[in-house]
Every structure is written in C-alpha cells, then in structure tokens.
Amino acid sequence: MNHQDLLISHFRIDTLHQKALHKLGIETVLDLLRYLPQRYTDVSDIQSVGGLQKDQEAIVFGKLSGLKTRKAWKSRRPIAEGYIEDGSAKIKIMWFNQPYLAKMYSDGMYVKLVGKVTGTAQKLYIANPEIEKLDALPIDRHDSIFKNTENLDDTIYPVYRESLGVTSKWLYHTVLKCFEKGILDTLIDPIPKEILSRYNLPDLKTALVWIHSPKKADHAKSARKRFAFEEVFYIQIQNAQSRQEANVATTYQIRTEATHLQAFTERFPFVLTTAQKNSIQTILKNFQANCAMSRLLEGDVGSGKTAVAATTAYAVVTSRPPEGIKQHKQTNQNKSQLGMTSLTKTSLQDLEYGNLQVAYMAPTEILAKQHFESFIDYFKHLPIAIGLITGSGCQKFPSKSDPRKPTTISKAQLLKWVKNGEIPILIGTHSLIYKSVEFKHLAYVIIDEQHRFGTSQRKALVHRKTQNAHGEKTNGNSAFILSESESPIPHLLSMTATPIPRTLALTIYGDLDITLLDEMPKGRKAVITKIIVPGQEKIMYDHLREELKTGRQAYVICPRIDEPDPEKENALNLKNVKTEAVRLQKEVFPEYIVGIMHGKMTPTEKDTVMAEFAQHKIDILVATSVVEVGVNVPNATNIIIEGAERFGLSQLHQLRGRVIRSTYQAYCFAVSSSKSEKTRHRLKALTTAKNGFELAEYDLDFRGSGELYGQKQSGLSDLGMEAIKNLKLVEAARTEAQNLVASLEDGADLKRHFPLIAARVAKLGEGLHLE
Q1: According to the per-residue pLDDT averaged within each range, which of 51-60, 374-383, 521-530 is highest?
Q2: Is the pLDDT of residue 557 over 90?
Q3: N or C: which terminal CB in the chain sees fewer CB atoms within 10 Å?
C-alpha cells in the first residue's frame, strides 16, 4: 500500500460511497489518514439509566423510542419528546422549542445523551440534552467502533464527520486496516526533525496513531497540536515567500507634495483623527519604498477607513515625475530617485499628471456604489475622473452634460478610458478582475472588506493586465512579477471593519503589514446596547416609537428571509423578514412605513429600497444581514437584531455599526430567547466590550475563529482554526517558516530541498483535508 494509492484500489467501495468520500475530500490513502476526527467519545463515563438521580449531569448511551412532538399546555411551546433505554431502565427526554429533533432521529437509533436530570423523584426526565448518533452501543463488543471495551485502556474512540452513508465507524475501521497493511512505514515526515523536537511534537507516524486511535486523551491532544502546527507552518511559509518575492518586485515610487495633500484633506467636513493621520503617513512612506506595499488597514466600524483610502488615492492619482524627467536620460542607478523603481525612460515619459491609476474593489454592488458616491464628494472639485463598474452597469464622473453628477456609460467606453488612462480611479465589485479590464498604469489597489474575497481574487486584481515600459501588455499570472520583467505591480491596501484577533491576523495575513485605526471621530457617541429577553419586547418597541417620533429611523434584522419548512431545524423559532415586516406594519407600527430588503432581491431592487430608506421614505427597514457591511444611512440610529444568538459577536458588532454613522445617540437591541447561560454570557460581552478588537478576542475564545471570521475566507480547517487560539504555537510556526525561507536562495529551492513541504504549500489554494 502506498499513500498515493486510491482507496478503491484497496477497498471495495461502491459508486455512491465514492461520491460521498469525494465530498469529504477523501480519494487517496493519504487523504483518509489526514481526515482527522472531529471529537472523541470517552466510554469510561457511561452511566446506567437506572441509576440516574435528580439534578445529576448525566452521560448515557441507549436506544431511542417513542419519539413525537406536541405543544405545551399553557405556553403552547413546541416540544420534542421520547425515551432512552439501556437495559437497566428507560427515562423520558424532552427538548423545548426544538420539535425538528423528533424528525431528525427515529425510534431504534443508538445515541449518546448529555444533559441534566430534572423533574420529580417519581417522574424524572432529561431536559434539552445534547444528542449524538452512534452506530452501536459501547457495550456491544461485536465489530462496533467501541470494540475492545473489555480493555480498560481503550475507552477513547474517534468521531468523524460523516457524509451520505460514509459513517464514522467505517472511517475508523478503514484507517485501522490501513495501519495493519503497513502504511505508516511508507510515510516520510515533511516537518524537519529538529523543528519537531524543539516544540516536543510527535513525528508523523506517532501522530497518526495517536490522532486516530489514542490510548489516552493526552495522546490525541498532542497529535492535534502537531497537525495544527503543521497547517499553520505551511501558511506561514507561503506568507514568508510572498514577502520575500514582494521585496524584489518592481513597483511605483509615489511622492506627493505635503501642501497639496493638506489642501485636499482640509476640504473634508470633519477633522481627521490622529489615528487616520498616522495611517495616511504610514501608507505614504510605503509608497516611497523600493518594494510594493502590502498593508492591512483594520479599523472599527465608523473609524474612517474610507477617508484614509480617498486621501492615499489622491496621493497616487496626482503624483507626477520630477521636473526635467523628459529631457534627460537616466541610468538604472538613479531611477529610484525619479519617482519609479527600475522603469525605463519610455514609461516615465508616459507618467503625466493623474496618469497613475487606482482600483478600489468592494464586496457588494451597494457598497461599491456607496464608495463611488463618497469618492465623488471627495474629488468633485478636481479634474479627476472616477469610474464605476459592477455586474449591473457602468458609470463615470463627471458627466459631460452636468459636471456635478455622474452619468451612465457603456462598459466598452469605460474599459477604453481605463485602458488609456483617462479614468484614474476605478471602483467596482469583482467585475474589476475580469480579463477585459486593462489599466494603463495601475499603481494602487484598495480592497474593502477584503476577507470577503478569496486569495485568488485579491491576487487577480493586484496582477491585472497592464502595459509595461514599452507599451506591451503583461499579465501577472505568477505569484509576483519580478523586477527583471520591468513591469511594476501596484501597492496594495486591504481594509476591514471586521475585528481580527492577533493570532488570526498573524496566520492568514502574515504577508501583510497591519495598521490599526483605533480612534473614533470626535463627537461620535458610543452605541447603547441592550439584551432583550422574552417579555421585554414592549419596552423595546415603546423606546423605538419615541425615537421614530423624533424623526429617526430603524433597522430590524432577521435571521431568515421566508418562513421555511416547519420540519427543518429551528424553523419555528426564527423570525423571517417577510413575516416580521407584515407583523410590525399591522400590529406594532401601523403609523409608520415598513420596508424590506434581503439577499434574494435583485441589485436594482436593493438599490431602490436603500435609496428610499436614505430619503426617509421608509421608517423601519426589515432586512437580513445584507446590511451588515458598509450601508450608510446617518439618520438610522436604532437597530433591533432578532435571534441574536444566531450571530457571532463580530457580526453583531458589524450590524450594530450601521447605526453609529452620525452624532445622534444610537441604540442596539439584541433579542434572544436562548436560555443557555453560555449564550447569555457571550451576548453580555456585546454590552461591556470597549471596541470590536476586544470582542474579536472574546468571540475567538467562545465560538472559535471559524465562526468569527469564516473558514471559507481563511482557508483554515477546523483544526487550524483551533490552533490560532494558541499565540505561542502561531508565533513558533511563523518563526520556523521565516527561518526556513530565509535559508533558501530562491523560491525554487523550497521544492528542491523540501519537496514535501513545497507540495503542501502548493495545495493551500485547494484547501487542506484536515477536517
């Protein structure tokens, strides 16, 4: 058996199960070995049903029976109930507000239950227990995943994520069969031994045994730590390579007259904060360096990132070569003093006033159009054209017919003007990365809410097709364009209002320098946040009515768009946009106008609703979290978030940020019916945390960064997400990766000296199968 062999060459697997395995990312033997357990079951804690007592925290294994749903007699709350029995006795189980569980499980299923025993001595039951489906009971020693339970050392068993008939039991036994076939002896550990010994991590063979078949809980923990280190290590190598390559890539050196920049910012209707000024100076300093800037601007909601973007964009599009550059031929030795790095005389002659270009990419059309309008306000007094490109159309400012307004133009015309440099600033969505979009001299790329774009999308924009020093087209398909290509890459500014914990930033954005906007504009009042539990809705609505009377507006956020299938998970316990809007209009606020907005609406429909809301034609906007990012209506100072327990603290903070766009006092009401102490404790942090950065660290501890930031965007597995809670592990992986890359002469050396590591780094874009 070889680790590269397909599983079907060693095991009989039908077509249906092959597809299920493919969905899990498992095709080869190595894929299976690297498909790690989600958790473990310790059968040493088994309790018999017959011995349970009131107020006891029970862990029981047994068979379900009598499952059904009903409604409580007084409250009419939906209830799922049934029994669990293990041979010693049976006890009733009840789930409140979770009727779907009676549909998800069926009589005769083997399960593990964890919950508190309550009721009376004569009528005990387990209330709202956690439930886990099993393939067999622990006491069943006949070919079950709990085999050998007569050996007291073997009480810990892995539980894997399943898919379409591929059970945890099958995965466990198949791994053991691979071990029996001697697969471990054929594997080579990609991590150098000296690195493993420095941090007391097990080698690959030991780690695989400990992760899939641990004798002790510490074995599984140690193995997971090793694989977590490995995953973060590969990402840090990629980051280190990116930084190394960026340092030798050709870029534009941009210089701006301080007096011109001051005149530009003095026209703002507000005074820049110290944090904004410092951020701008840091970016301007990067512009003058010999290598392209790669910087992440992390600022809390309302901290003024757009103003920083506009000011630095102004610095780029108004830059020009020094006097006399067209009259004198320069040598490579002094080119860096002329405003560009390693560029020929021909390209320097092309750099006339405003000829350097800026691309600004936003995640949604609503946000792109909002930035377009903001930039018009910033640049309307200057002879600088601004373009907008989205999936629904293109615009240009200023219009020939009315210089005070933008005009709609054809995509072909916009692309022509961008290509010849007549439009210095182009704002758009992912449409910016289309192959048809060509720039003359793209010198600066700004990506807003960058975590919503994949790595490939960000690179595609940075390496747009442009024109080199001789007017020839170039296309940066490689990771970086090296200096000898004589084709510059633009400076990159990524921005986010999503608070990022330090460990996550070090892991995912280790190739970026980070700047924090940790100061709010003067006069901005902190939002007052309150947690609303059942029975307090009237107090909340009374407050909102008083706010509406003063002319303010409000958002109401719901987790769903429509009323879903009542048999699906939590369907009866979640409010939806359409139903809630009708209820609020008819029963609560009949004297005000209620509108709706959600992700299923077309861009035109959403634009219309947002325009009406901004014009105060709508008083209350009921929406999904589509309003989470960037939507700006200063008069909307109240937000109600239904089902707040369904959102992470970071997302709640983002939603709350929609109502702190003015100097009015803002209010946020987080409505939750959850009785979980953990949930209530987590939501309470929303009322006590000083800023989003503090919330990010809190959310990381309570929900994990996968919930906080999104695994799809980060590229990390569940295990990798666990790893970034450990700052020492992240910093260790970063140090080792930087040392390894620094020891190589060039990127090719990684493949030559560390082929296994190079192969894993190359697969990062595909995602690691460390589920």
Answers
A1: 374-383
A2: yes
A3: N
Q: What's the distance, Cα to Cα, between the start and end of the chain in Å?
A: 23
Q: Residue 688 in 3-state DSSP?
A: helix
Is it the case that residue 364 has pLDDT exceeding 50?
yes
Q: What is the DSSP string of 79-102?
A: EEEEEEE-SS-EEEEEEET-TTHH
**Inside any domain, residue 726:** no
Paired tokens of 480? 């970086």
Measured in whole angstroms, the distance separating CA 652 from the mean position of its chain's CA atoms is 14
| Average pLDDT of the segment spanning 146-173 | 70
Closest Cα partner for 492 from 464, 518, 472, 519?
464
Q: Report yes or no on 515 lying in a domain.
A: no
Distance between CA atoms of 405 and 386, rounded to whole angstroms? 11
- Identify which of 425, 251, 438 has the alpha carbon closest to the alpha carbon of residue 355: 425
Most confident of the ranges 39-53, 134-148, 386-400: 386-400
Evaluate whether 692 touches 653 at the Cβ level (below 8 Å): yes
| Element housing 29 (H / E) | helix 29-33
Does 353 share its domain with 419?
Answer: yes
* 379 and 459 part of one domain: yes
CA–CA dist 192, 174 (Å, integer)? 29
Supply φ then ψ for residue 493, to 5 degrees.
-120, 115
Tokens representing 323 are 């006097």
Task: Report the distance separating Cα 685 and Cα 699, nearest Å.
Answer: 9
Q: Which residue has the higher pLDDT, 164 or 326?
A: 164
* Sole residue written with tokens 């003093």: 337
Residue where a domain stops, chosen among 117, 137, 157: 137
Clarify whether residues 542 and 603 are in a common domain: yes
Model pLDDT for residues 624-633, shown as the tens digit of each residue: 887 755 567 8
Mean pLDDT score of the chain: 80
Residue ranges of E strands in 252-392: 294-299, 357-361, 386-390
How many domains are there within the chain? Answer: 3
pLDDT at 584 over 70: yes
Higher-pLDDT residue of 140, 509: 509
In the block, tokens 């560029």 appear at 343
- The residues that bridge with 428 in the sheet, in sequence order, are 361, 389
CATH code, 572? 3.40.50.300
Establish if 65 belongs to a structural domain.
yes
Residues 552, 682, single domain; the answer is: yes
Considering the chain, what percentage of its residues have pLDDT values greater than 70? 79
| pLDDT class of 475 with cuts at 50, 70, 90 | very low
Instruction: Tell me: do 589 and 458 sit in the same domain.
Output: no
Range of the domain at 686: 528-690
Structural domain ending residue among the three candidates 690, 721, 743? 690
Dig out the tokens for 609 from the structure.
Answer: 């609703």
